[in-house]
Amino acid sequence: MSDQTIILRKTPFYFIRLLVIIEFIFAFLPVFATVIFPVQAEYNQTVLAQSLSFTVFFILVLTTLQVLIIAISFFSWYLPVYRIDPQSVGYKRSGANDFKELIKIQAISCLSPEQHWLGKRFDYGDVFIYSNTEVGVVPLRDIANPTGIAIKLEELSASYWDPSLPLPIQPAPELIAAGESQTVEFKASILWDYRQKRPNKTLSEPIMKTLAAFMNSTGGTLLIGIHDDGSVLGLEADFSAMTKSTPDGFELIFNNAFNRLLGVEYRQWVNLSFPEIEGKTICVATAQPATTPVYFQHQGQEEFYIRAGNASQPLPLSKATVYIRDRFEI
Fold first, then answer.
1. Same domain, 176 and 302
2. How many structural domains is the chain composed of?
């Protein structure tokens, strides 16, 4: 087995959740059984009733059923496993089965880790793996540390990309129609704050974090002037807050923020264009994969971002060190 192979079982909280449901059901089952069905009257007419009271019999039956269901629940948690290796993600239901390939690593186009409130508390949840092939969406459900697993899959997927090759450029309308993903993100503006209805210079920070994440991953496209829901806002609100109300003025604001937060040496990896959609001007920032790590620099601190699903994820130092070593071969 490769050193990069990961074997995943469902989190123990999955088993605990099953137990809670079972205990809840069995807490009320005797009451419903005796009220709805004439169980005791029927039992008293059997030969067994002469040597074993109905109460003892009923307890034995419930206990036996409970043990069987708990055993089934345990094996339904323990036996199925996922396997992640540098080539593919596989799954098998039991030790007697072989692993079935769910998706090839190189076919991964997007990763989305998801956790509900309890999952966030105990660090478990689902990872949805998206593919542009006929495979579609592959869910890894109820696993521990879903964000970490998504990052690992991103690292493996990135190994199939050649940073020296330019990222394919798609028309902006196609990107908007497809929605946000591993390689596409929307931002409403770089300067105009739609909530506060005034200029806000801090809006450039999430834009630069996204671009850093794209450059540290497999590249991507950031569309500015587009709402999260895909509706076209345009850059006119940004233009109104600029001294030079043109795309050139916008690029000047962009460059100042980029050089301050990321570094002028990385500007070569990002191309800006200003197409018109629905009569409104937007900005399309296409980021190529960088050949060296890109750090977001703010208030004397450096942060390292990558893409994990349709979000830009900061990595702690320990994970960033491993990722940088593998991604940039440093």
1. yes
2. 3
Q: Rounded to 5 degrees, what are φ and ψ at 193?
A: -90, 110
Q: Cβ–Cβ contacts within 10 Å for residue 304, how many? A: 21
Question: E strands, 132-281, where?
Answer: 137-144, 184-187, 192-193, 198-199, 220-224, 270-273, 276-277, 280-281
In a domain, 154, yes or no: yes
Which residues partner with 180 through β-bridges? none
Q: Which domain holds residue 136?
A: 96-158
Cα–Cα nearest to 294, from 219, 218, 215: 215
**Is 139 in the same domain as 214?**
no
Give the domain CATH number at 300. Answer: 3.30.950.30
pTM of the complete model: 0.59
User: 225 in a domain, yes or no?
Assistant: yes
DSSP line for 278-314: TTEE-EEEEEPPPSS--EEEETTEEEEEEEETTEEEE
Q: In terms of domains, do 205 and 322 share one?
A: yes
Question: By the 8 A CB rule, do 210 and 186 touch?
Answer: no
Instruction: Tell how strand 198-199 and strand 192-193 pair up.
Output: antiparallel
Q: What would the pLDDT profile of 167-178 be if each residue is shown by its tens digit?
A: 566 788 988 998
What would the pLDDT profile of 282-326 be if each residue is shown by its tens digit? 999 999 989 899 999 988 899 999 887 788 889 888 778 878 877
Mode of pairing for the β-strands spanning 283-287 and 192-193: unpaired
Sign of CA dihedral 151, 157, 162, 167: negative
Is 53 contained in some domain? yes
In a domain, 13, yes or no: yes
Helix (H, G, I), strand (E, B) or coil at 20: helix
63: burial class by Cβ within 10 Å (0-12, 13-18, 19+)? exposed
Query: Edge to edge, what strands does the sheet with 283-287 contain?
Result: 184-187, 220-224, 283-287, 270-273
